[in-house]
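Our consortium's second objective concerns turning raw sequence data into structural hypotheses that experimental partners can test. To show how far this objective has progressed, the report includes one record in full. It was chosen at random from the queue rather than selected for favorable results. The single chain below, 333 residues long, was entered without modification.
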Amino acid sequence: MKAIRLHGFGGPEVLRHEEVPVPEPGPGEVLVRVHAAGLNPPDWYAREGMPDVPPELRPPFALPLIPGTDISGVVEAVAPGVDGFAAGDEVFGLLRFPAALQAGAYAEYVTAPASDLALKPASVDHVQAAALPMSGLTAWQYLIELGHDHPSPFQEARHRPMALGEGTTVLVNGAAGGVGHLALQLAKWKGARVVAVASGAHEAFLRELGADEFIDYTKERPEEAVRDLDLVLDTVGGPHSRRFLRTLRRGGALYPVYFGEFDDEENAALGVTVTATQVRANGAQLAELGQLLDAGTLRVAIDSTFPLADVRTAHARAARGHIRGKIVLETRA
């Protein structure tokens, strides 16, 4: 089969389109003929060798490796003992994450734990389905239901999503991105009022998805434009996430997807909660997201698509930023 492999770390030029053996499914796994693979930030972090992560915290990578975690395709074979899937089923999933930060999705075939997969709705094409898993599950596990008891590398306490509904105001920072545009729609589905933060070029797109208010961060600072929010989902996160603390009412919460540095005493004085988690593969939750997609309640925006062989161009597109929705590789037309 054709696959993309890394033999060393660096820029998009280290991604190689090569011939490799088709993997064999082990116990509890299925073999999937991949039609499309979604791109996610961990893909380029791994490609670069995670230079910003301290060596003692850096996960081990055995080279060469095939990147990618998000797929949509067709079940080719099922290992003994697997129930719920059969050859010919159309499926999609986030594979092995975070146990394996890269799971071999940039390939024509991949093995997948059956528990990581969901049946793809017939109304949803493979590109849309491949774009959903990591971003959709991140939004779901932050906002709707965590769905597991695994400890987070970011905090000792278990993340508990705030109940959303009428009378709840949620700000989504980075609202046009992969996680952001899905989180906006999930918050609206739950009845919340949503403030979307992005650059001005995305305003019409985000209002179409249901944003009640829009803040163009290139023209005004969102932390100065709003107050008394119930929840901020900061999909950008990192060291600048603290600026959103004072936008919250007492009892409010800040969820930074990329955790930064916070002061517990400051949070307590403001009466707010700062909490995060790490997305985990979950086929059952993905099936629920698929139902919302099938019903038209949720929409996955596709920034761009590229053939598998053009993976370097896809990663170069990701590096330019300002992505609207998701980037997807197609292994089959």
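The partners drew two points from this record. The two ends are 16 Å apart (CA to CA). The chain has a mean pLDDT of 95. Both points have been shared with the crystallography group to help prioritize constructs.
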